[in-house]
Amino acid sequence: MHIIKPILPFTLAFLAAILLLNFFYGRSVLSAPKAEELALGQDNTAYFAQDNGYNFHCGDFLYFPIPDCVQDFNTIESLEKQAYLLMGNSQLHGINQPELGLSSTSEILYSYFKERDSNKNFLTFSMPNMNMQEQFLLFEYAQMTLPLKKLLLAVSFDNTRETGIREGLLDALEEPEIKSNLKASESGQKILDLYGDTSIEDLDLPALKDTPQKSVEFWLNSRLSTFWNAWEARGSLRAISLIKLYQFRNYIFGIDSSSTRKKIPARYDANLLALKELLARAKALEIDVVLYSAPIRGDAKLPYDLKEYQDFKIDLQALTVEHDFTFVDLQQLVPAQYWGVVDSLNSTSGSTEIDFMHFQGFGHQILGDYLTELLTAEGWDR
Amino acid sequence: MIFNSLTFLVFLTLIVIFYWLLPSQKLRIFLIFFSSLTFYGFWRVEFIPVMLFSVVLDYFICLRLEKASLEPARKKLVFLSLIGNLGLLFYFKYLIFFSNTAIGFASLIGIDLDPIALKIILPLGISFYTFQTISYTIDVYRRVIQAERNFLLYASYVTFFPQLVAGPILRGREVMHQLRDKLVFHTSDLAWGLRRVFFGLFLKVILADNIAPLVDSGFAISISQMSAIDVWTLSFLFGFQIYFDFSAYSHIAIGSARMLGIRFPENFNFPYASSSPRDFWKRWHISLSSWIRDYLYLPLAGISLKQGGNSEGGLVSAITQTTKDKALIATWAIMGLWHGANWTFVIWGLYHAIWIFAYRIFSKKRDKLNFTTPAFIGIVITLPIMMLGWIPFRAPDLETTFLMWMKVFDISAYSSLGMRENAYLIAFLLVIMQFSSKGIYTFSQKYLRGRSIALPIEFFLLIIIIPFVLIYLRPITQFIYFQF
Fold it and tell me: Is residue B342 part of a domain?
């Protein structure tokens, strides 16, 4: 017994750890909704509309993959076909209380322009918290793969607090032409510096780049994943553990959806620079751009510093004027009754908070109608 | 091979099993040597000959040293070892740096030279294994140890995989006798080693790797947008990142060696609980600090050693304070340069030299006046000084370093925040965690050690640590000290 005693705690803990991982895998990973749904909460549904199997609303390269939209667009047999693109955050695919009506802005725009002219195909790329560096990258991808003529950009103050390119968009950086185009701008070069050499396969082992260990590590991980599901689901387990930590932080500090999100100066500047360079590039390529600041719920105190939010819209206005494009402020477009609630940010007890970003189907109808009118006035239907 | 990988865990498991199954120590040394070469080859095979050159050079020099009786001949042999090892280090680590510096100076005096296009890859661990072979040769020269005749044993000491890439820097007398003796398997060693390996992985993959993105995005902010609070936060965050990262490496190295029955000296001892700059360097990277003291500072200061060959054996000292001060400055500049071929590291070294020098003056005055300062006051003063010292270590250049330091003294720069809220929160929590962990460790050593309650507590801690290590284990970053 005295031989076994020293090693007993570790052995038991190791076995218990494996059982625990299996338990959490079954409880949290298998039963959890897809990441997109998880981010939106229970009251919202991710709605990526289709037209009889034709994809015109996509997410990133992993979830409702953008190449599907591009591929479907390319099946249209017309030499005159044109791509119109709407890009923005989860407001574009998140439908609050879908039981009240399933309709999305992208669907309305697609149908409106398709009815007028079958060559004008409205596509939408949306992902949660899409920042302007990501919009810049996706713009380059879209203009390379599609005959892009018009660009409708939805921007939100929230998204200026995020920077960088997420895993779901790294595939866009595989294209040499995109890399070469990005090199020509400061933002693009920054993106390349940080992500230019990263592929999704390498995401878990960048420290092993160019070493013989990389293939061994890859092989061992894939072997272990084949007979231990929890090992394969480690990415999800990491995400869940971080969400729990995030909820715990919010609980301790009383953070909820209406807590003020302050501007983060460096991130804000990086985003605005990316937007500026996107607009300049669109100008050079003779692609028309309409920019709008996304609607936000107006019957409660805004979760922003009011001055910072106003300055943000002034900055957007100035950028569009500089490039001779159109800007509209849609902050108050959607009335309060068409919004809803979202899962509490600081608990798992099922409580809810005001949702400032996602509205009901009828809100989408209002936004869609407004945009069709605006874009028609801009001559996009001609 | 990188410790924070599945490959290493499988590698270590196999080596430990085979090691203890082998019937003789000869075979075990054979296993250690070839597994160490395999371990190194998993990074780059082509640099194994560079490492073996250093090993072979000092092996033969030391055999000759022992036979040589005349002092001039002995000194020549030591000089040959220094030329060989420092030459390697100079070529791989400093050639580009010094050539660029020379070109920079030339342009200052109006001579325009074309930059030399060199593509030199720094061999992993070269700063560590060259220091180890140098200390071995000097120890043989000082007659502290005898030259080892068994080449495989000596080569295993230098290349021993747990410490090969980032230390602890081992002295021959600490390890070679352990490699020579046939060790007996103890489950307590295995359990102790496993705990240290997993604790090290926890520090690396949970703490250091998750602090890293905050530090990276913080240092990417332009100085004009950075507030003084941001500078403090970044210096604390990086201070903790490098501590968790490097001490993690040491924990894993010490634990892996112990699983093979070999004991390494400790390399860290709660450095951020130091009560003075001098105390800090007795607790941070202890093996390097003592190496630098015994093989660089003492010779530079002209201090000779009594029997025993290191400063613990006692000092023979009749040296002026000025000489000691000059040696201090030179030692720290070299220590900085050892860490990296950049002027920022030299500034980092000099920063510490200045604080150690200031503390010397302060402690002399304090002793004269016969008053004592409570340890707590010392810790509260020392911690921010040490943390600010990490700025040149992480900043990309001297200009950024000085601008960041200047922000700290700009009162008007304390009115804004430039980073995500989490960065400040995490820095604050880490400080709290640092102090509480020291208290918990002291308490457990005092009241729990050897008691029956220790086993369930150990089990409880492991059941938290192991699942997180398994979930987060992936080689997303190298250890920071790999670049040195």
Answer: yes
| CATH number of the domain bearing residue A99 | 3.40.50.1110
- Let me know whether B223 and B89 are in one domain: no
CB-count exposure of residue A175 (10 Å: 0-12, 13-18, 19+): middle
pLDDT band (50, 70, 90) for residue B312: low
CB proximity under 8 Å: B 182-201 to A: 186-188, 190-192, 194-195, 198
Q: For B108, which DSSP code?
A: H
pLDDT tens figures, B431-470: 999 889 888 988 888 888 878 888 888 889 999 999 999 9
Structural domain contains residue A306: yes
Answer yes or no: is pLDDT of A17 > 70. yes
* B49-103 pLDDT, tens digit each: 999 999 999 999 999 999 998 889 999 999 999 999 999 999 998 888 888 888 8
The count of structural domains within chain B is 2
Mean pLDDT of chain B: 90
User: Rounded to whole angstroms, how far apart are CA atoms B236 and B433?
Assistant: 13
Looking at residue A278, its pLDDT comes to 97
Per-residue pLDDT reduced to its tens digit, B146-191: 999 999 999 999 999 999 988 799 998 899 999 998 889 999 999 9
Range of the domain at A345: 48-224+256-377
B393/B343 Cα distance (integer angstroms): 10
- Tell me if B188 is assigned to some domain: no
Statement to judge: residues B242 and B113 lie in one domain: no
Q: What is the ipTM of this complex?
A: 0.86
- Is B322 exposed, middle or buried, given 0-12, 13-18 or 19+ CB atoms closer than 10 A? exposed
What tokens appear for A366 in the block? 């209002």
Q: What phi and psi, each to the nearest 5 degrees, are found at residue A79?
A: -75, -15
Pair B297, B425 in one domain: yes
Instruction: Flag whether B193 is in a domain.
Output: no
Residue A40 lies in a domain: no
CB A290 within 8 A of CB A152: yes
Q: Strand A120-126 to strand A326-329: parallel, antiparallel, or no bridges (unpaired)?
A: unpaired
CA–CA min distance B218, chain A (Å): 9
Range of the structural domain that residue B117 is part of: 6-182
| Chain B, window 76-115: residues with a beta carbon less than 8 angstroms from a chain A beta carbon | none
- Considering the domain architecture, whether residues B259 and B400 belong to the same structural domain is answered as yes
What percent of chain B has pLDDT above 90?
Answer: 65
- Classify residue A268: in a domain, yes or no: yes
Closest chain B C-alpha to A104 CA, distance in angstroms: 32
Under an 8 A CB cutoff, do B190 and A6 touch? Answer: yes
What is the C-alpha separation between B392 and B390, in angstroms, rounded?
6
Find, in chain A, the residue whose alpha carbon is nearest to that of B452.
A5
> Looking at the complex, does the CB of residue A336 fall below 8 Å from at least one CB of chain B?
no
Give the containing element (helix H, strand E) for B429. Answer: helix B421-443
- Report d(CA A256, CA A64) in Å as an integer: 29
Distance, CA of B233 to CA of A124 (rounded, Å): 40
Interatomic CA distance for residues B180 and B49, integer angstroms: 25
B211 and B84 in a common domain: no
Query: Does the pLDDT of residue A87 top 90, yes or no?
Result: yes
| Residue A299 CB neighbours (<10 A) | 9
Query: Residues 5-24, chain A: which have Cβ within 8 Å of B?
Result: 5-10, 12-14, 16-18, 20-21, 24
Establish if B446 belongs to a structural domain.
yes
Residues B216 and B130 in one domain: no
- Residue A122 confidence (pLDDT): 94
B476/A17 touch (CB, cutoff 8 Å), yes or no: no
Measure CA of the first residue to CA of the last residue in chain B; give whole Å: 16
| Distance in angstroms (rounded) separating the CA atoms of residues B355 and B54 | 35
What sections of A78-233 are H helices per DSSP? 105-116, 132-145, 176-182, 186-195, 213-227, 229-232
